[in-house]
Amino acid sequence: MYFENLEKEMENEENEKELQESHYLESNFLPHIALDCVVFGFDSEQLQLKVLMLKMKHREDWGLPGGFVGKRENLEDAAIRVLKERTGAKDIYLKQFKTFGKANRTDEIIEGNTNVLWLKRRFITVGFYALVDYKQVKPNKDKLSSDCGWKDIKDLPAIMLDHQTIFEEGLESLRRSLMLRPVGYGLLPEKFTLSELQNLYEIILDRKLNRGNFYRKVMKYQILEKLNEIRNIGAHKAPFLYRFNKERYDDAVTNGLKDIW
Amino acid sequence: MYFENLEKEMENEENEKELQESHYLESNFLPHIALDCVVFGFDSEQLQLKVLMLKMKHREDWGLPGGFVGKRENLEDAAIRVLKERTGAKDIYLKQFKTFGKANRTDEIIEGNTNVLWLKRRFITVGFYALVDYKQVKPNKDKLSSDCGWKDIKDLPAIMLDHQTIFEEGLESLRRSLMLRPVGYGLLPEKFTLSELQNLYEIILDRKLNRGNFYRKVMKYQILEKLNEIRNIGAHKAPFLYRFNKERYDDAVTNGLKDIW
DNA sequence: TCAAAAGTGTTAGATTTACACCCATGC
DNA sequence: GCATGGGTGTAAATCTAACACTTTTGA
């Protein structure tokens, strides 16, 4: 009997919290509009491209970090805010890639048992992908989730709603843009070795690249600066460190480099 | 005095209409969400790429054809519906290219003098571009506009809101996609000559292409079917007619052809 | 001495670009 | 005959892909 009451009390408390959350959302954000981010991080030790995911409360499956657009907030700023809250990282490369607007895409939630009533309506979501420095990120769960962490893109858990599709289209979009322009700023730490860069490209494109040719190509576009530093790793020659020449890099990103890789 | 009353009456009538329109929108469409279409048509006589524009009531500038998303309507379906209403054309190629979400992008309207109150809120808009057969289209104005017609992309009138930006990004997106895959289905009539196709490509890409090389390239991808028909034009050899082989064309559109042109 | 890093050489083959030449045909 | 269309030839320049050789250097 006692336990039953305790449980009920806790349930009520949880209810109360969710109702408050619902009011907060109601008064601060645009209804029907969400955004979701496919946040990529490159684990250069395990040589894995990872994506940030959240485990939602009341659910067994995972979702992409997302959020809503403040009533007077620019769409892009909303995405930046969400990314900062979730990752703590600054220097985030963000790109909008597609808006998802199937009429029934959030029916699962509308019919589900959340008490955040504000969520119980149809949502259209704007998809962004983001490139962040894996090592700088401290995954941070939000109010609606119970866990937050990196998942290897080749080994994803069960995924809610249409977030699997959003992820796949985000990855495809990243691949395509790598064909047209350099990627890396954001995904790598400020200083990195050439083989880290090559590994990153191989993982994004999902194929091996020839080292010599890669070296010449990357040098030709002069987007890198060689530093007078070296990283000590193993029982062999220490690799040089490089960083992006921001000016040339931005130029290349803006104007594209035709299909390079 | 009499005229004054007449004017006032007409104003009242107009007011009444707009309020009704506002209620209609309120009960049928999602608030805050719009879509705008950059509709391209190829005028093969004047050799101009044209874009469909509307002149809004109460305004001197022009805008892109747009609309809203029905409460239970898929986003893409809404775009298709708007396009059909505005152009009468079937067989429309539609592609979403970007969502525009600056907080102040519709302030002009919020502060303007429309009585369609539903419009007096912030809107985020999803941009689509569409390719239609210029000759099949009968431009059709909507309730909120006073005129509708084709404009040469090299000679546009004054444009409202951020529709200039939306147009430019739509055109850029069309150009890019032409680099990766064939375009033309939709923009050309069912039957067309090779030089019409080449003209189209030259106008979209804004540069001359070598005829011989163009011929070989287009043939290599086998997306065309030569017909046993000829078009009689002038005092010279009549050109053959071609049409797209829909299967191969769709295949190429889906899988891309790397950078071709 | 080994293993990885850094840089360069080389070559076969494909692709691109630019011209140019041929024939056909409607008027 | 002439202007346009349709089709092919070709050579130079450039780019790609694959491989291999050299030197450096930390443990």
UniProtKB/TrEMBL annotation, chains A, B:
Gene3D superfamilies noted in UniProt: Nucleoside Triphosphate Pyrophosphohydrolase, Winged helix-like DNA-binding domain superfamily/Winged helix DNA-binding domain
Pfam families, per database record: NUDIX, WHD_NrtR
Species in which this protein is naturally found: Neptunitalea chrysea
Protein's name in the database: DNA mismatch repair protein MutT
Domain Nudix hydrolase: 30-175
PANTHER family named in the record: ADP-RIBOSE PYROPHOSPHATASE, SLR1690 PROTEIN
Signal peptide: none
Listed CDD domains: NUDIX_NadM_like
InterPro entries per the UniProt record, alphabetical: NUDIX_hydrolase-like_dom_sf, NUDIX_hydrolase_dom, WH-like_DNA-bd_sf, WH_DNA-bd_sf, WHD_NrtR
